[in-house]
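input
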Amino acid sequence: HVQLVESGGGSVQAGGSLRLSCAASGSRYSRYCMGWFRQIPDREREGVAGIESDGSTSYADSVKGQFTISRDNTKNILYLQMNSLKSEDTALYYCAKGAGPNDFGYWGQGTQVTV
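output
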């Protein structure tokens, strides 16, 4: 049974920083592609950042240079360092796990970020 649990969300002033974490259960974590997504009410979920099993990363244009995704394969934890936060970053942030960047089959419950 795969479980993803996000943490680290909260309220922060504009210009501040937060680091989100996502603890993943299940085996072979290092082989999976992991990603962060966000959703604002009445809008479609948006891909924010992804990291593949080889460590290569990708970012939405809106967060390039502002957010950093990383993973610790020894602890099965995914991170999202968010700096210089803006009001438009306010959203429910989800982590996801999958076989590839277009194949996320497992999702967490989300953690709220309010700027």
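quick obs: DSSP finds no helices and eleven strands in the chain.
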